[in-house]
Structure formats: C-alpha cells, structure tokens
Amino acid sequence: MKIILKIWRQKNRQDKGEFCDYVLEDVTRDMSFLEMLDMLNNKLVKQGDRAVEFDHDCREGICGQCGVMINGIAHGSLKNTTTCQLHMREFKDGDTIYVEPFKASAFPVVRDLKVDRSSLDHIIVSGGYVSVDTGQAPEANNIPVTYEEAESAFDAAACIGCGACVASCKNSSAALFTGAKITHLARLPQGEKETASRTMAMVDQMEQENFGHCSNTEACQVECPENISVLTIARMNYEYNRAKILFKK
Amino acid sequence: MIWFIKNSVTRKNLMALTGLFLSFFLIVHLAGNLQLLLPEVQAKLQYNAYSQFLGGNPLVILISFVLYACIILHTVDAIYLGIKRKKANGVSCSKDKRGRASTWYSRHMMALGIIVFVFLVIHFKDYWYRYKFGELPLDENGNKDLYTLVIVSFEQLWYVILYVIAIVALGYHLLHGVFSAHRSIGLYHPVYNSIIKVLGIIFALVITIGYIIIPIFIYINHQT
Ligand code: FES
C-alpha cells in the first residue's frame, strides 16, 4: 500500500526542525512501523540522503527504547502497544502519517525522532534500587512474598521506561514512571525498607529534571504500552507525604 | 522550606487540601442559600437573620479567614503550576491528538478555574462587599436586608445566565477536582478510589443542580 509520511527532521539539538514529506509505495500490511521506517531509510541511503534517526532495540515491546508520536499520539493510536509492536495493518492505503519525536523539555531532541531520555535514568539513579549486594540469585523461598504482592509489584515493574507517559501528559509529568518504580519496590520486602528515603530522592530528582506536575488526567495510563495504573502515582504521593511527615534519618 | 515551595507533589497537596476545604464550604453555603426558596415573607426574615448570625459569630469569622486564605492559595498555586507546566512542555506537538486519552474538563481545570474566579470576584463585589461595607436597608427585625438584594439581582435574566454559566464551570471543575484531590494527597487503594470517584460525581451533580435551581427559581417566581 501507499503511505505518505510527514516526518520530523532535525539536524541537532539546536536546529529548529521541520516536517519533511516522503512517499512509500510498497508498504505491506505485515510490516511493523519500524520496518516501514527501515524501508524508508534504505531508500534514503540509496539516494545518498541522510537516514531518519529513531531509537529502537528489542523490537519486541519490552525494552522501551522505541517511541515516537504517531499522528499526535505516543506510540500511535493502537492502545497498550509500543511503536515497534505497531503494524502497518493499522493504517489504510493512501494514509498520511505524521511522525514526531516525544516532546517535553526534559526530553531534548537529539536528532530527528531521537530524544534524550536520560532524565528518566537520573530518576532511577537517585534511588530506584535496593542498596544491598544481592550476590548470587538467592533461594526463592527464603523471603516469603505473597502471590498478590508479587503480582502487584510486577504490574508496576512492567514499566519499560519508554517515556510515553511524559509525552502524553499535558503537563509533561513523569509521575507515572516515578510512581511505578516507587510502587514496584515498595511492594516487596527487599525494597520496602528504603521506601521513605527512596521516594524523597526520586521525587526530588523528578523535580530537578524539569518534569511537570501530575493533575490526574489519567492520559498516561491510557497511552502506556504496559497499562501501568495511575494508582501508582497516588502511591507515590502517599509515600512522599508519609516520608516527609514521619521519616527521620 | 524550599522543598515545600518548589516541590510539585507538595504543591498539589496544597491544591488538593484547599480545594477540598472549598468544596466543603460549598455544601454549607448551599445549605444556607436554599433558604431563599422558602415562602417569601419567611425567607426574607430567616435569610437576613442567618446572614446576621454568620457575620457576628467569632467562629464563623475565623473560618471565613481560612476560606479567603484557601481561595488565595488555591489560585496562587494554580498560577505557579501553570507556569511550571509551560516550562515542562517545551515545544508542543505539531499534530496533537493526545486529547483522546482524557476528559476535556480534566485538561482544562485552569480555564474552568478562571471562569469560577472571575465569577467569584463579581460575586464578592455584588454581595459580600455590599453586605459588609455598603449601606443596606434593614428588614422588619432590624437585620441588613441581603434577601432583597439577592432577589433583585436574580430578576435580571443576564445575571441568571452569568450565574448558571459559572456554576456549570464549577460543576465540571468539581467533577475532576474532588477525585483528583484525593489522588494528590495519596489515596491509592483501588476500592476507596472507586468509591471516591462515584461520590465525586454525585457531589458535583448535587452542587451544580443545587446552586442552579436557586436563581432560576427566583427568576421564574418574580416574573410578572
Ligand atoms: S524497540 Fe524495544 S520496546 Fe520497542
């Protein structure tokens, strides 16, 4: 099928950037969205033009590297799907597709569709871990964890850190990402102990990275490839308040 | 102290707590105003006596200061977060379809809030200011005649329309605000969240309908 692409091209961080039009004739329904972009890049390279840069890694929907705004929606209109798992069968012959990078002050565009999401890494570095040496994989039954707790921790841990929540949020808030990380660790005995200091550190880091506030529009959960619950944000707020009121070093 | 001012979680807490207090006040205010629907002679004396009582009660005066503080803090906080939002957004998308994922009123709390705020200024000027600092005639019991002031204003159609628009904006503001406030202060339990969501909708409906009935009732009743 024929696809008309309007792709955001930007040479570097300073460049203003603009949409460029491309037409692809032989797109098949079974191609993934990224394969379609590969096809375009092949064509561009053959012509001697610069390829469109975009992030990707696993192409299985599990690493969180890919992510662009497709027709104004993070990862495109198919719900709970990453860009790499979106297929061209979602589009019709002759469709025009706008492709833009995730936009937020905390995600500066590096080039074309590629953004710098280190701000999310900084949040993790500030406290998204347990500070004990785990050594080798321990015996699984040494620390009892109930089925419900494990499941709920895993629901939050499913966050792949793609940044679609930030891109979908009218305030460019990273509350869903940070909330998911905090909830994940707070639900497990290994992580629970440091919840207070971790929450304060991660929330403070989130502030410093120039993310916006959360106004509970819940758009993040709707567009999240992993359908992370917005209640993790409430959990973050709860843990933060609790820590500020009760926690003493 | 800086963390308190700068941190968006605490700022949202402040937003939530002031908002919840203002929501609570709406119930009390509505209960008082519903007296306007009583038969005219009784309504007049009762309403004026009620207003007189409120104005003279030290506890009520104290609460009223909390109320003014809440309005100011809620507004200042909204401006602060609005600026923060602008900064965080950077360049916006050229094609923006993000709206599909959330309700329009949850995205436009600021606009709804501005409508309510403008209305509040008018409301304060027309009733509060004139009652407190203006010269009002006295009723049979010697109380300031706020009742007649209210009735006369609601005999004008444009005033009723203005009032209804503002209340509808307030209704949508509450529809998102009440449940959002609970989230902001950290209510994360799914069951309580569903309960709060339903209660929030009922609350917004009751407040909206309750406040809208009054001017319309008065307007229709005083058409000759
Ligand atoms: S490339 Fe890994 S999630 Fe899409």
- Determine the most extensive contact between two protein chains: A-B, 51 and 44 residues
Q: What structural class do you assign from the helix and strand content of chain B?
A: mainly alpha
Q: Beta fraction of the residues of chain B?
A: under 5%
Low-confidence stretches of chain A: none
H/E series of chain B, N to C?
Answer: HHHHHHHHH
| Rg estimate of chain B, integer Å | 20 Å
Strand content of chain A: 5-15%
CATH level-3 fold name of chain B: 3 helical TM bundles of succinate and fumarate reductases
Structural class of chain A: alpha+beta
Structure ligands: FE2/S2 (inorganic) cluster
* Terminal CA distance of chain B: 61 Å
For the residues shown, what is the average pLDDT of chain A? 94
GO molecular function (chain A): 2 iron, 2 sulfur cluster binding; electron transfer activity
Family (chain A): Belongs to the succinate dehydrogenase/fumarate reductase iron-sulfur protein family.
Cofactor (chain A): [2Fe-2S] cluster; [3Fe-4S] cluster
Pfam families (chain A): Fer2_3, Fer4_8
Short characterization:
The complex is a heterodimer of chains A (249) and B (224). By secondary structure, chain A is an alpha+beta fold.
Write the layout of secondary structure elements.
The complex is a heterodimer of chains A (249) and B (224).
Chain A: E1 3-9, E2 18-24, H1 33-46, E3 69-70, E4 73-74, E5 96-100, E6 109-111, E7 114-115, H2 118-127, H3 147-157, H4 164-168, H5 175-186, H6 189-192, H7 195-208, H8 219-223, H9 231-246
Parallel strand pairs in A: 1-5
Antiparallel strand pairs in A: 1-2, 3-4, 3-5, 6-7
Chain B: H1 2-6, H2 8-33, H3 40-56, H4 58-89, H5 104-107, H6 109-133, H7 146-153, H8 157-184, H9 190-221
Bound molecules: FE2/S2 (inorganic) cluster (FES).
Pfam families (chain A): Fer2_3, Fer4_8
Cofactor (chain A): [2Fe-2S] cluster; [3Fe-4S] cluster
InterPro entries (chain A): 2Fe-2S_ferredoxin-like_sf (IPR036010), 2Fe2S_fd_BS (IPR006058), 4Fe4S_Fe-S-bd (IPR017896), Beta-grasp_dom_sf (IPR012675), Helical_ferredxn (IPR009051), SDH/FRD_Iron-Sulfur (IPR050573), Succ_DH/fum_Rdtase_N (IPR025192)
